[in-house]
Amino acid sequence: MLMLWRVAWRNLWRQGRRSMLTVSAMAVGVALCMAMFALIDGMYTRMFDVMVSQALGHVQVHHQAWPADQQLYDTVPEVDALLAAIDADPGVKAATVRLSCFGLAAGDKTSAGARFMGVDPDREDQVTQLKRRVVRGSYLDAAKPNGVLIGAGLAEELEVEPGGEIVMISQGADGSIANALFDVVGVVETGSTMLDRAGVWTPLPALQSTLVLPNQVHELLILSDDLDTLPALKGRVEAAGGDQLMVRTWQEANPQAALLIGSQTTSKTLILFVVFSVSALGVLNTMMMNVFERTRELGVLKAIGLSPAKMMALVLLEAAQLGVLASAVGVGLGLLIDLYLVKVGVAMSKSGEPMSFGGVSFDPIMRGEVRVEGIVITVVFVFFVSIVAAVWPGLRAARLQPVDAMRQR
Amino acid sequence: MPIVSTHKLTRHYQQGGLTVRALDGVDLTIEAGEFVALMGASGSGKTTLLNLIGGLDRPTSGTVEVDGRMLNQLSSGELSQLRLDRIGFVFQAYNLLPVLTAQENAEFVLLMQGVEPAERGRRIQETLRNLGLEGLGGRLPSELSGGQQQRVAVARAIAGRPALVLADEPTANLDSHTGAALVDSMRALNDNEGITFVFATHDAKVEERAKRVIWMEDGRILRDERRG
Predict the structure, then answer these.
(1) Residues 6+ apart with CB under 8 A from A273
(2) B76, B89, B107: residue with CB nearest A304
(3) pLDDT tens, position by position, A272-323
C-alpha cells in the first residue's frame, strides 16, 4: 500500500497545475464551510443562550395550571424540599427559582408595562449569568433588599439610570394593590428583546412580600451538564415533585424555539451539500482526466499483476491525497478567517443598530464561534466527497482490459 | 512438465465488418526452462499468442494452461494474481512507470507480492547488478537510455521470480549492439535461474540465441524448430 501511496502521490504532480487548481477549489470550499459554520454557531449559540439558558432553563418546573393561565396563585408547592432534591441530583449543574408577575413600572416622568421577576441573585446568576449582563451600575445585592435591575430598553423608556427609583404597581395575591418603591442598582442587556424592554429583576423576598406570596415561587429553572439526558432528568424531577407539577424540557416548553435552534443542522447540511457538490465535480473531472490520460500506463500495471481492487485503490488514493491536501490548506485558511470572525466579526447593519430575530437581539457586528466539531465535520466531509467522486474513475480503471488499455496512445 | 499449453487456441477480431483471424487453432506446448522465439511477419499472430498466454486477452475459443492453471476458468482478480506471481512481461515500448525510479520500477512487483523489505532489497540489488544497472537505480526512466530502460523492464519482469517471462519485441527499439546484449542477459537468466522465456520478435539476434524457434503465419504455427 505504501508503494501505491507513493505512485499515487507522484502521479498527482504529473499534472501539478490541474491538481493545484482542484486542491485550491476544495480548500476554498473547506474554508468557506468553516467560516459559515462559525457564523452559524455564533448566531445559534446566542439564540440558545437568550432563548433557552436565560429564559427557559434546560428543564423547568411549574404548577400544572401556570403555563396556560399564569395566575398569581399557581405557585410551586413545597418548593424548599423540591429545590433540595434538585440540588442533590448529580445531573443538575445549577437551579434557580423565580416569582413573577406583570405590572406597571413608573419612573419620574413616564410609566411602562413591565415583567417583574423575583430572583435569588446567586442562583439566578449561576443559571442565567445575569451578573455579566449588567451594562451599567451593579448586580443585585442581598444587602440592598429594594435594589432592582431593569432592562436597558425599559431604562431608556422610563429615563431611569442606576441610582434612580421606580415604582411598581401590580396586584397582590390577597386582592390588594401591590405597590413598592425600588432603587435601580443596575441596567442589563440580556439580548432578549422582550426582557430588555420590560424586565425588572428584584430580590426574591422583596417581590414575595409585595405580592403577598411569602415563600412562594412560580417556577424553577434547571441547568444540566448534559443536554442529551434531559428526559431522564425531567423524570427524576417529576418523581421528586409530585402530581401538581408540570415538568418540561426546554423543547417542550417552547417548541418554536426548539425548531428554530434545531434548524442550524439543516443550514449546515445545506451549506456542506452545495459547497462540496462543486468540489466533487472538480475531483471527478481531475480523476477522470488522470485515468483517461494514463489508460496505457494503467493497462501496464494491470498486465504486471495489479489486481482490480488495487487499481481502484490507486485511483482512490490519488483522490484521498487531493482531499488531505485540500483539508490541510482549507483548515489553515479557514482558521485565519475564523480568527477574523471571532475577533473582528462581520458588520450586519449599516446603521449600527442591533438587529432582532426571533425575539433575540443581535449585535450589529456578528461574531463567529469556532467549534472543533465544525472543523472535523468539514474535513471528514471533504475527504468523503473526494473518495466518492473518485469511485467512478476508479471503477473504470479497475475494469480496464490490459490488452485494450495498452493499445491506447 | 509443460509451463504453457494451448489447445485449438483461436482469437478472432471484428474489424470494419470483417472477421480477422489473428490466431487460428494453435496447439502449443512449452516446457519449463525453454528459451523460445516466436518469429513471423507482422500480423502473423505472435503478439496475440503472447497476450493470450499472459492472460491479457481472452480467446475466442480454445484453452490456455499456464503453470497448471486453465486461464479461461480464472476470474479477473485470479488472472492478476497469476500474472503477479508467475508471469513477467517485457514490452516493446518498455512501459515503465515514469514516476518511479529504476529501482522502484523493479521493486514494484515485489511490493505487490508482499516480499519482506530485507529480502526485497537483496533481490533488487542482485537483479540490477546482473543486468548491468548498478548505480542507475535512483534514476527516473526519462533519465535512462532505451537500452537501460529495457533492462529495467527486464528487471521488473524477473524480480518477482516468475516461472515464465513473455517478451514482445523487446529489442525492436534498441540498436543491434544493445539488443544483443539484452538478449544475452536474458539467456543468462534462462541458463542460470531456469526462467522460461518466450519472445515475439523479428530480430535475427534473438533467433540465433533461442533454444527453440517457432515460425508463425496467418495465425498458425508454420514451423517449430528445437536447437541444441
Answers:
(1) none
(2) B89
(3) 888 888 888 888 888 888 888 888 888 988 898 888 998 999 999 999 999 9
Cβ proximity of A6 and A354 under 8 Å: no
pLDDT(A129) > 90: no
- The span from the CA of B95 to the CA of B93, in Å, is 5
Instruction: Indicate if the pLDDT at residue B31 is higher than 90.
Output: yes
Distances (CA, A) of B119 to B87, B103, B106, B122: 20, 14, 14, 5
3-state SS, chain B, equals: CEEEEEEEEEEEEEECCEEEEEEEEEEEEEECCCEEEEECCCCCCHHHHHHHHCCCCCCCEEEEEECCEEHHHCCHHHHHHHHHHHEEEECCCCCCCCCCCHHHHHHHHHHHHCCCHHHHHHHHHHHHHHCCCCCCCCCCHHHCCHHHHHHHHHHHHHHCCCCEEEEECCCCCCCHHHHHHHHHHHHHHHHHHCCEEEEEECCHHHHHHCCEEEEEECCEEEEEEECC
The sign of the torsion formed by the CA atoms of A290, A296, A299, A304 equals: negative
> How far apart (Å, rounded) are the C-alpha atoms in residues B28 and B50?
12
Is the CATH code 3.40.50.300 the one for domain B2-226?
A: yes
Interface contact flag, B83 A308, Cβ < 8 Å: no
Which chain B positions have a beta carbon within 8 Å of A406's beta carbon? 56, 91, 95
> From CA A219, how far away is CA A82, in angstroms rounded?
11
Stretch (H or E) spanning A142: none
Q: How many CB atoms lie within 10 A of CB A25?
A: 18
What grid cell was written down for A132?
455579566
The pLDDT tens digits for B152-211 are: 998 898 888 899 999 998 888 778 887 888 888 888 889 988 899 999 998 888 888 899
Q: Residue type for B21, please?
A: R
Question: Taking residues B60-69, what's their average pLDDT?
Answer: 94
Look up the ipTM and state it.
Answer: 0.86
CA dist B3 to A403, B50, B104, B120, Å? 22, 13, 29, 26
According to DSSP, the β-strands at B212-217 and B35-39 are parallel
Instruction: Report the C-alpha gap between A74 and B85 in whole angstroms.
Output: 85
Residue A184 near residue A137 (C-beta atoms within 8 A): yes
Mean pLDDT of the residues in chain A: 88
Give the C-alpha separation, B37 to B166, whole Å: 10
Give the closest residue to B53 by CA, choosing from B30, B77, B34: B30
Categorize the per-residue pLDDT at A11 as very low, low, confident or very high, splitting at 50, 70 and 90. confident
Domain boundaries, chain B: 2-226
Taking contacts as CB-CB distances below 8 angstroms, the residues of chain B near A16 are: none
Residue A169's pLDDT is 94
Residues B182, A272: Cα–Cα separation, whole Å: 57
Out of A3, A10, A305, name the one closest to residue B81 (CB). A305
Measured in degrees and rounded to the nearest 5, phi and psi for residue B115 equal -70, 140
Which one of B52, B92, B97, B104 would you mutate to disrupt binding with A, by most A Cβ within 10 Å of its Cβ? B97
Which residues in chain A are contacts of B91 at CB distance < 8 A?
A: 300, 406
